Amino acid sequence: MTPEQYVQRKAAQSGSSFYYAFLFLPPPRRAAITAFYAFCREVDDVVDEVSDPGVAARKLQWWRQEVAASFAGRPSHPVMQALSAHLRAYDIHAPHLLAIIDGCQMDLDRTRYLDFAGLATYCHLVAGVVGEVAANIFGRTHDDTTRYAHLLGRALQLTNIIRDVGDDARRGRIYIPMSELQQFDVKASEILQRQPPWGYSDRFLALMQFQAERAHRSYDEALQVLPEADRVAQKPGLMMANIYRSLLREIEADGFRVLHQRTSLTPLRKLWIAARTQWRGA
Q1: Do the domains 111-282 and 1-109 match in fold?
Q2: pLDDT of residue 198
Q3: Using CA atoms, how far apart are residues 60 and 9, in angstroms rounded to an integer?
Q4: Cα separation of 31 and 248, whole Å?
Q5: Cα dist. 243→17, 156, 207, 237 in Å?
């Protein structure tokens, strides 16, 4: 299996909404974003699939060394072999990749965030930087597009956090800031235990609506700062925004039943939203 086949398989098997946006890119950019996405999946899987934190930390350290070796011209992992061919063309630097690894390291080092400032730092590393690199690959000509990419990355990550409250609780994690749980009088134990009737109190629903409103603001802010000159090039990001925002609205319409289930859109619906964005351009 070639490195290019490896990253294509990694991206396709993920079932992610991102994959549908990649389909509309020209081949060189599609190859670059597929390799980059496979890198993100590899380091994220270290945290999600390795049960021993010590082993996971060592694996992340290995990835840091692999990034350094790759920028020195010695990639050994098929993901980095595939990605290395695109680093210079799309202005991808080692600090970008190391920041993403640092974000995954935060998942090993903490299971709670005291306030939104701390969560925002996490979102910057695991989503904002990802958005910045993706925007470069899609075709960025304006500095404001970097700001757009970071805001959109935050919006997507906040949507993930809302969707995955139950899944994260099963792993002992709560990404909703503790200060906001206190603000809405929701105890961490209520989320972690997920007891029937699944903890869906009025307090919990108010807390989740607060989270959703912040995510919506991030989407709106991102779209407001995207320069018109880059709007066509950034269509893949707009596709992801429309797919994820549709997911967020689905969760809202379902009453935030996120403690016992994981809401998702069908592949056909994701493809339809991506295609509609391609046609309409917004």
Answers
A1: yes
A2: 62
A3: 22
A4: 29
A5: 7, 10, 23, 10
DSSP 48-114: HH---HHHHHHHHHHHHHHHHHHHTT---SHHHHHHHTTTTTTT--HHHHHHHHHHHHHHHH-S--S
Instruction: Report pTM.
Output: 0.92
Provide the 8-state DSSP code for 128.
Answer: I
Q: pLDDT digit string (tens) for 127-166?
A: 999 999 999 999 999 999 999 999 999 999 999 999 999 9
Annotate 152-220 with DSSP letters as a single string: HHHHHHHHHHHHTHHHHHHTT---S-HHHHHHTT--HHHHHH--TTTT--HHHHHHHHHHHHHHHHHHH
Q: CA-to-CA distance for 135 and 141, rounded, in angstroms?
A: 10
Contacts 24+ apart (CB under 8 A), 93-97: 94/67, 94/68, 96/129, 96/132, 96/133, 97/39, 97/67
How is the chain split into domains, by residue range?
1-109, 111-282
> Which class does domain 1-109 fall in?
mainly alpha
Q: Which class is 111-282 in CATH?
A: mainly alpha
